[in-house]
Amino acid sequence: MKIVRGVLIVFLLLIPAFAWAEDAVYRYPIDDSYAATILGTPQKLRPDTPGEVPIKTMVLETDREKPEIFFYDLGLRYTVAFQDRKAPLVFLIAGTGGSSKSAKIVALITNLYHAGFHVIALPSPTFSNFIINASTTHVPGNLSDDADDLYRVMEQIWGQSKGSIEVTDFSLAGYSLGGTEAAFIARLDEERKVFDFRRVLMLNPAVSLYNSVSRIEGLLDRIPGGPRRIGAFYNRVMAKSTEFYRKGDFVAIDDDFLFAAYQAQILNRDEAGGMIAVSFRISSAGMIFASDVMTHGGYVVPKNRELKNSDSLDDYFWTCLHLSFLDYFNEYFVPYFQSRHPGLTKEELLEALSIRSIESYLASSAKIGVITNEDDFILAPGELDYLRRVFGPRLKVYPRGGHLGNLDFRDNMAFLIDRLRSSTW
Question: Using CA atoms, how far apart are residues 186 and 178, in angstroms rounded to an integer?
Answer without folding.
Answer: 12
